[in-house]
Amino acid sequence: MNIIGLYNYWIVVLLMMIGFYIVIAHENLIKKLVGLTIFQTSVFFFYISMGKINGATPPILDEKWQLYSNPLPHVLILTAIVVGIATTALGLSLVVRIQEAYGSIEESEIQVQDTHDQLECQLEAYGPGPDFTILNKDLTK
Amino acid sequence: MSFLALTALAIVRLNDLFAVVMLSGIYSLLSASFFLSLDAVDVAFTEASVGAGISTLLFLASLKLVGRYEKKSRYKPALALGIVIVTGALLIYGTMDMPHFGSPDSPIHQHVAPRYINDSMAEIGVPNIVTSVLASYRGFDTLGETLVVFTAGIGVMSLLLISRETKDHSKKLVPADMQQQIILRVVAKMMIPLILMFALYVQFHGDYGPGGGFQAGVIFAAGVILYTMLFGLGRARQVFKRQVLELLTATGVLLYGGVGVVCMLMGGDFLDYSVLRHDAIHGQHLGILLVELGVGITVASVMILIFFKFTWRTVKHKYNP
User: Which domain holds residue A66?
Assistant: First the structure.
């Protein structure tokens, strides 16, 4: 009984771990967004699991029933799903703009381009820095 | 539940983003049936229409813009896995103190829920408790969430602005990619009116059965999006003009807020619908109806607008690469 009683929560934790892993380990921005969605749904499952009562019915009042599941988590999650899709759409449109600006949605490639741009800006602003080639010659000896 | 975990694992392994998006659609459908089995009918409804419908579509539209395959390279996977496992282990340790699944005496059922279940029929007069909590008891919350949807719509609009030359293209009718699919077109012609009707039913029947503004808005948007995919953006935009849609997104939020202000003018608190009519219950009915209508209008027009913006980007890439 002990194990079955907590099974739902453990799956929730597992899903959360998977989503979290995708978000931090993958470089592709679309994949990251999918991971974020999984992370988000794991929280939804958590809330809905807590609202369930054994032997209860959906919270729509009727004379035949006495025991209802908790309606509050349902309300919270229902709105959260719609807000979630709206924010995901915002993220996707950001990804589309990044693709147009950088020609890539892999984070490492974007970073390489950023550092490159930064160096170019510095070169323009301050001119070429002090000449370090002499130092290098000393080191090679 | 275990199916969900398997699908999620497959999503981690795959490099083909198209397959990933399809799997996430399946994942949403599975989670909708999971919600259904846990008595959360309204939530299941929303998840099925949002997760399996609209979000898959949006992901596919942006995949068309950014390319299908993911590069193999990853950040130090071992380190990431380590962090994730430590977090997971801590959370599992935390669940040891959780009340068991389905037990009626856990703390969550002791707080405000009994009042909602026992008194909402007398106070609000709406059988669907989820609707009465959503629109009446927690009206502020829902107003805030509608505003978030509205703001996200504005954000997408400003990020994916349409340039002047694309607008010139829009003068010509851009044919849809699926224009030739005759079977799809015939079936869709029969389905679309039914989908729109169903959306309206869900909108106005939300007091008595599962449903309400959020679900109805998304279903309505899904019908319009189906039409757009099969008959071309040009035609869809003749019916749903951009200016009208933009106006509608604001109208929905204004309607919601306006109901609140009218309540204040009539001597009640903000969003206290009881004062709208002589009879408190009738007032609540009217208030919930109007507020849900506002939510529905905003959600539907924001979703349609977002889809249009994404489709315009694809059209733009096609004509000026």
Answer: 2-140
What is the band of A136 on the pLDDT scale with cuts at 50, 70, 90? low
Within 8 A of A54 by CB-CB distance, chain B residues are: 102-104
Question: Residue B129: what are its φ and ψ, rounded to 5°?
Answer: -65, -35
Q: What's the number of domains chain A is made of?
A: 1
Chain B nearest CA to A134, separation (Å)? 36
Number of H helices, E strands in chain B: 14, 0
End-to-end distance of chain A based on CA atoms, in angstroms?
73
Quote the CA–CA distance of B130 and B134 in Å, as a whole number.
6
Of the listed ranges A18-22, A77-81, B115-119, B161-165, the one predicted with least confidence: B161-165
B162 touches A at CB < 8 Å: no
CATH code of the domain containing A60:
1.10.287.3510
- Minimal-distance CA residue of chain B relative to A9: B95
Which residue in chain A is spatially nearest to B19 when comparing CA positions? Answer: A31
What pLDDT, in 10s, does the model give residues B179-211? 677 888 888 888 888 988 888 888 888 777 777
- At residue A130, the pLDDT reads 60
The residue among B156 and A131 whose pLDDT is bigger is B156
To test the contact with chain B by mutation, choose from A79, A88, A95, A112 the residue with the greatest count of B C-beta atoms within 10 A, namely A79
